[in-house]
Amino acid sequence: MFHLGIIFLVTYLVGSINFGLILGYIQGLDLRSQGSGNAGATNALRILGTRSGIFVFIGDALKGYLALYVCNLIHFQQESLLFSSSDYLFLALIFSLIGHCYPIWFNFRGGKGAATALGAFLFIDPYFAVFPIIGFLVVFLISRFVGLSTISAFFILFLQTFFIDHGIHHNFHAFSLVIFLFIFYTHRSNIKSMFKGTEEKL
User: Which residue from 174, 167, 153 is spatially nearest to 94, judged by alpha carbons?
Assistant: First the structure.
């Protein structure tokens, strides 16, 4: 149980490193007070420019990947495990998402978690990211709404767990549903804006 706490702490702290806020502070502003008020890659792209947006997206994805890599290093050092290896990775994914969205370094106001979740899933199995990315691009090209495209991508990821096994632990169904609901929740403001007709297109 102790090493589960260590995994929680480390992956949460890794997730709490917010590249959008760091980059914004370097340029003398707080992304949370600009544009959509979000500290993620999309708002960074709008406020700081294309290169900054790409940098933030890659940084947020890499930290999701790194969080699970660190989790692997920690739990494989243990002789006895409470859960399966894949369950530890899924829990680390959730902890890193919580860190990204509610970072201790930035008054618990961060991003929405999509890029971080993508990086984590790329660590688990890059194969599972293919169809969600395609789905994201299709919805985005049709609607130009990043929030809607992101929600659609994670819904596709959840659906495909029922059709593509690929050697993944059966708990992947439940965890992918939890991640989808988490992403849906963090994008609730986008959903409200779409219903009101005020959502900004990219």
Answer: 174
- How crowded is the C-beta side of 64, counted as CA atoms within 13 Å? 27
For the chain, what are the domain ranges?
2-196
| Residue 39: closest CA among 16, 67, 62 | 16
- C-beta of residue 145 within 8 angstroms of C-beta of residue 201: yes
Torsion of CA 89, 92, 93, 98, to 10 degrees: 170
- Residues in the chain, how many? 202
Distances (CA, A) of 100 to 67, 83, 105, 134: 11, 24, 10, 24
Instruction: Tell me the pLDDT of the chain (202 aa) as tens digits.
Output: 666 778 788 889 999 998 988 888 888 888 888 887 788 888 888 888 889 899 999 999 999 999 888 887 776 555 455 556 677 788 888 999 999 999 888 888 888 999 999 999 899 888 888 999 999 999 999 999 999 999 999 999 999 888 776 555 567 788 889 999 999 999 998 899 888 888 888 8
d(CA 56, CA 54): 5
Question: Token pair of 172, please?
Answer: 């992947």
Look at residues 29, 124, 14 and name the one whose alpha carbon lies nearest to residue 60: 14
Residue 117: closest CA among 35, 188, 181: 181
In angstroms, how far is CA 177 from the centroid of its own chain?
14
